[in-house]
Write a structure and sequence with these properties.
Length: 102
């Protein structure tokens, strides 16, 4: 239970940093956020946010969100570490394994 809370907190902190950065730009330039997630029910937040456009709406009119689909947590975390993603939805195991390795 503590591991999932840790991952949830880290995800929320990262998302708030991205949103804060978008707000601080004041609309001067377009914001591009690269989001990775799995195309299944376990990542319903990402699926709904992308489908309804609520992510882009919260980031402002100049926001552009680029979606990247993954079918395994380790490959998604590798993309995050390589700088190819700004935000990724994964479970606690890939997140903790990557944190320990890095």
């Amino acid at each position: 239970m503590k591991k999932s809370r840790f991952v949830l907190c880290c995800s929320l902190v990262l998302l708030s940093i991205v949103i804060t950065g978008a707000v601080c730009t004041g609309g001067a330039k377009a914001v591009k956020v690269r989001v990775g997630y799995f195309p299944n029910i376990t990542h319903a937040q990402a699926l709904i946010g992308m489908e309804t456009g609520s992510f882009a709406q919260e980031l402002g009119p100049g926001a552009k969100i680029q979606a990247f689909l993954f079918n395994a947590g380790p490959s998604a975390m590798e993309a995050l570490l390589a700088g190819e993603l700004d935000l990724v939805y994964v479970g606690p195991n890939p997140a903790l394994n990557t944190y320990i390795r890095s």
